[in-house]
Amino acid sequence: MVDPVPLQLTGEVWATIAVVVVAFWGVAIWALIRTLRQEDRKVELLEGQDRIDSYSPRALADLREFVENNPEDPYVADARRRYNECVETLKGTDRQFYDWSEEEIDRLERL
Amino acid sequence: MSESEAKTARAEWGTRFGFLMAMVGAMVGVGNIWRFPYVAGQNGGGAFIIAFLVLLFVLAVPGLMAEVALGRYTGKGVIGAFRDVTGRGGLVGLGVVVLLVNIALMSYYAPLIGWTLYYAIHSLLGTFTGAGFGAEAFLDGFLANPVLTMTMHTIVMAGIAGVLLLGIRQGVERVVVVAVPALVVSLAVIAIRGLTLDGASEGLAFTFGIQWEFLFMSSTWIEALGQALFSTGLGWGIALTVGSYLREYDDVPLGGGVFTAIGEASIGILAAFAIFPIVFAFGLDPAAGAGLTFVSLVQIFPELVGGVFWGMLFFLGFFLAAFTSGLVITEVGVTTVSEETRLSRTQTVLAVCGLIWVLGIPSALSADFLDFADFVFGSWGLPLATLAIIGVIGWKLGPERLRVLSVNDNAGIYIGRWWNPVVKFVIPAVMLFIMGFFAVEEFGTPEMIWGMVVLVTFPVAGYGVMHYLEGRDRPPETADVAGGDD
Fold it and tell me: Which UniProt keywords apply (chain A) (predicted)?
């Protein structure tokens, strides 16, 4: 039941409301805008060069580590294919989706 | 996954916005609107919200990422995805468990959508603002009239079937990209009106006032856990199915995890701003649950200036929230069954919707049965389904494989190795805890006994059926595997 004592809009309540608005609506709107912009960017790249790099530098490093550390893994063929496709795209296109430097791309090799 | 299977024609979302709205539309149901603000207020307000937020980020966001990633990686419904991971055999039956739980869930949710439809129709007719209108008698009259409840249940299932027959892009996506923003706008407009009422601030103080001592109570965290996991629909097969229609270059973590979980919760917060100022301004009982929506709020519309408009806005929004959830929940069954049989999408939609309609008859005829089914499947069925999906990812496929192969593939944000133990250990442990907690709380009651029946029979049935079926030759997949359009 409702507390019979009238509840007050104290500074603490206002602070909670502010935090909630930022933590929920702020994050949701940020995620929505960011992901929609990324989609636009991906579509633009796909239309311009037909393919895009599918992994960020850190994610591709993880993928390489997985392939190298698990040569007998049943999923390693798929992992290697994805890795090589990304490397080929990075070496064969002028514009990247993720923040790759020229040096990073030059160092990449197929597995 | 064989090359031929990988090349099978399959529908895709037309836009990323369509995928996002389908995810949020599926997760935002009636519970977000009447339950979240009240549960927050009863469990320490801001303290509850802190706990809820922590659990959303620690459990729901990583869990949803896992489910969407599995769907995108396999490009299959729940049973097909399980087959890709476990190989052929009885373990595929865990996918059947998810399917059974999903259909059971929908069987009592569809009649509830019928309630919201009935109220939406009467809000348009101006019934609630008519002379001599009695809210309680109106609800009792509706629930005691089997012709009315069955008619609403039937219309709802026919509507869902109609949309699903149009396919993923032409049907589901077209509805959700309109319905979900319309729901948000209707709640926002009501919130603006509610906040201008005298006494509205008490509603905000009730929901958002921090009672710090609640942060250290186990009951607060258990309530927050239930809200964070069940309101996001983690492990019901929805995220997996919706994710299976993602395009290759779509991102999983940002849209499938962060936006879905936080966006869905944001609508719960919006509902708090929309409803609780009105509840307190008119001195209603915030803990009335379904009664708050179907009895208490109905009574105050005639007292508001422009009551017909506000009632219409509220109940149409309420219906949209329920209908979009029902739509996507049913799609889980349609996608899965169409992949596993030789039936066309049209036949599958009719079969699945027909089955749900039949199973929903007891809940349509008895609100008590609906409550009972909700408790049994909410307390044991849904954690069981979540345990099946997250367990298969964590213990059979392996989270590291999924992380490097799918989660971080075309990802908007990078997901590190911290994600692996959450999926492998934390989420399954939490699901076991929830089932154990409810078993102890309800020890010896019919709810607990039926919960145990679900826990035992669903996996046994799933294992048995798939062990038998997987030993036989599978039919070749047709071009129209799922999705129906495109």
Answer: Membrane, Transmembrane, Transmembrane helix
